[in-house]
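Bumping my old thread because nobody answered last time. Still need a sequence for this structure:
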């Protein structure tokens, strides 16, 4: 789940605690180009807005409709935007895109499910919310894997889960650039390095800098299937130690910087240290899409491009 969605849920809880009855708006289908993907959420209360659906005009229209009491408050409503060329032009939807949105006014009873979802996210657990579209009643169910939002005539199901966590082994220049890109793409980033002098020279974004042996640091972060681990130091004494631990975890993606020849030697070393063929097959090395990248920025872009491709295809 994106951090913006967690911000939406947290704000909804705050408004409910203040005795307000905010509105929750969720994109449930898109056709053509869409500024935001299915599952994106927006919270409204009075004139206050948290989150985004379109970048502006749809939000303004929703505020006007709610202020004029044109949207029913007793059950979720399905609204369509971009169904005509005139509406596209007026609301600013690009390239003939269409959005379908579920709009629901919340009450004090909704504080319970919002609290449970926030707790699940913070505990790095997955949970699915099922909404009865006739009554607005919510049921929650812990799940083992994230599923895209699904909607039919009766219910809407939406999965929530933790932000993807990226552990970077190596606090050098590439780690700093990769951290910048990853944060911009909504990853939680942690940097691991056993070299105090390298950590002291960190000029990247404000992220946790963990000093210690990489295998211990990786194990202590409770690495799960929502995790990405990438080694960047070029020092086999550091990278190999990290990879031995990383490939034993449930991490979704494990990558290692290095040339084809370096990778071949690394795989041979890791095999002699006891990793199985199946574990070694999980390693993305050389890390990143093969786009001929040479500079640190190009390498960072290639790495994030590969991760993005795999997430979308997965």
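Sorry it took so long. Here it is:
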């Amino acid at each position: 789940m994106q951090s913006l969605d967690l911000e939406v849920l947290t704000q909804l809880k705050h408004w409910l605690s203040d005795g307000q009855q905010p509105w929750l708006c969720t994109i449930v289908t898109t056709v053509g180009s869409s500024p935001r993907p299915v599952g994106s959420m927006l919270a409204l209360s009075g004139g206050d807005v948290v989150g985004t659906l379109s970048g502006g005009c749809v939000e303004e229209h929703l505020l006007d409709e709610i202020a004029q009491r044109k949207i029913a408050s007793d059950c979720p409503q399905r609204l369509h935007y971009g169904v005509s060329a005139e509406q596209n032009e007026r609301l600013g939807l690009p390239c003939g895109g269409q959005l379908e949105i579920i709009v629901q006014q919340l009450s004090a009873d909704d504080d319970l499910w919002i609290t449970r979802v926030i707790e699940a996210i913070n505990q790095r657990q997955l949970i699915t919310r099922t909404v009865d579209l006739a009554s607005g009643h919510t049921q929650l169910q812990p799940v083992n894997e994230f599923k895209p939002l699904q909607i039919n005539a009766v219910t809407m199901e939406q999965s929530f889960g933790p932000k993807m966590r990226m552990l970077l082994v190596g606090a050098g220049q590439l780690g700093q650039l990769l951290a910048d890109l990853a944060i911009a793409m909504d990853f939680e980033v942690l940097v691991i390095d056993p070299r105090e002098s390298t950590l002291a020279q960190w000029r990247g974004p404000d992220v946790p800098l963990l000093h210690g042996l990489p295998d211990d640091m990786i194990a202590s972060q409770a690495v799960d299937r929502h995790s990405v681990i990438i080694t960047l130091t070029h020092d086999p004494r550091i990278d190999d130690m990290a990879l031995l631990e990383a490939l034993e975890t449930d991490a979704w993606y494990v990558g290692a910087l290095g040339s084809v020849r370096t990778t071949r030697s690394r795989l041979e070393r890791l095999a002699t240290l006891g990793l199985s063929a199946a574990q070694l097959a999980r390693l993305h090395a050389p890390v990143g899409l093969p786009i001929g990248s040479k500079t640190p920025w190009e390498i960072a872009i290639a790495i994030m491009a590969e991760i993005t491709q795999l997430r979308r295809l997965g």
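DSSP finds eleven helices and 15 strands in the chain. Let me know if any region looks off to you.
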